[in-house]
Amino acid sequence: MTSLIEKRSALAIVVGEDFRDPRIAFEAISSVDQVAVVSAGHPLALRQSGGSIGLADLADHLQIVLSDPTPVTGDRMFGVLSPQTCRVTGQDAKHAMILAGLGWGRLPHWQVARDLAEGRLVRLATRALGRDSQLAAEAYLAHRIDEPFGPAAAAFRQALKRQLGV
């Protein structure tokens, strides 16, 4: 969002509803399922074999969360349930830390599907993180309403929409 507002980019993909700006148009393109996961050897994975995990159980363990390096979010935190957090600036780092057994967190299902299927990660069974420990967020193609698309942005937009079937 910051790059759009500051006119450093023509398009952005934004996931979620938290940040709207009257200068920015949002076009829904897809839904992104976020799932709560932990490495198969993590104490939370072992604990849940007897049933579901409660909020207090989650709070006892390190939660790996994304940190926004821009001023858009300020000091706001989203989806943080544990007082013990480790902040990272990218999904790949978060994924690697969760795989390494350092903590738990939510990641896009597309990013962890293979790890889940092959048993490296397990979904956390808790209603505190959404039905089936999953939340769906809408993904949007965002652009400034006062800036017309250039040829590259227009071609990218069309290719993305074609690829996603929208």
- Helix/strand order, N-terminal first: HEEHHEEHEHEEH
Classified by CATH, the class is: Alpha Beta
Oligomer: single chain
**Intertermini distance:** 22 Å
| Number of spatially distinct domains | 1
What does this structure look like?
This protein is an alpha+beta fold and 166 residues long. The protein is elongated and about 55 Å long. It has helices spanning 2-5, 43-47, 55-59, 91-99, 109-117, 151-164, and strands at 12-15, 24-39, 63-66, 85-88, 104-108, 121-123, 134-144. The chain has a single domain (2-164), classed as D-Maltodextrin-Binding Protein, domain 2. The protein has six helices and seven strands, in the order H-E-E-H-H-E-E-H-E-H-E-E-H. The longest helix has 14 residues, at 151-164. The strands form two sheets. Strands 1, 2, 5, 6 and 7 form a five-stranded antiparallel beta sheet that branches. It has a two-stranded parallel sheet with strand order 3-4.
Spell out the blueprint of helices and strands.
Elements: H1 2-5, E1 12-15, E2 24-39, H2 43-47, H3 55-59, E3 63-66, E4 85-88, H4 91-99, E5 104-108, H5 109-117, E6 121-123, E7 134-144, H6 151-164
Parallel strand pairs: 3-4
Antiparallel strand pairs: 1-7, 2-5, 2-6, 2-7
Question: What is the gist of this entry?
Answer:
By secondary structure, the protein is α+β, with helices and mostly antiparallel strands.
